[in-house]
Amino acid sequence: MSLTLENRIEFVEEKILKACERAGRSRDDVQVIAVTKYVSLDTTKSALEQGLLHLGENRWQDAQAKWEAISDSVDLVTEDQPIWHFIGSLQTNKVKDVIGKFTYIHSLDRLSLAEAINKRASQLGIIVPCFIQVNVSGEDSKQGIEPEELIPFVEQLAELQSIKPIGLMTMAPYEAEPEQTRTVFRALRELRDELGRRSKHPHTITQLSMGMSNDFEVAIEEGATWIRLGTILVGKEEE
Question: What pTM was computed for the model?
Fold first, then answer.
């Protein structure tokens, strides 16, 4: 028998609690992003009704219909607001569509993108919290800046007043044995700590967006503050 959404949430919550316990961390330190790119609008609405207010999408083309439908249906006075996270690679020409709709950007990886985000945010009179994506694993298939480029990149961001870098993001290689991802997550945490010691950016970068359905428990043990969960949490539906 297939699991219901409620069953999935309970299953994931138990794993989060145990991972936090192993790491000596508070459960309150870990935020869950429900990645809804592979599920329908109805399932996305059900996730919101179950209290999963942080929603993650990879592409504006796929997210647009959901964003518009949910935004139109939310009672701004009485209901909790969904908080949208853009977690995929963001093309510069899509910045105008995404900024102002998605609260968080998890894939800031180049200066040209930062400048485009800053320009659009400035036009809207907002400040956009961003995660800098770092290619810790060194895989050619992964997006992100190289670890050695991180500190100079952060220093460049200090000139952009409408961007607030709040954390680092990475994607570990898919491993049949999740334990093998630990070095990637540990390296991102160490990069964050090094930033704290060396960066002169006015905003302190404290957050870590890392860990997905296959490896989130290891990511939590290594300090993840945001985990991005799709299949294990909300499932995957056929198109």
Answer: 0.94
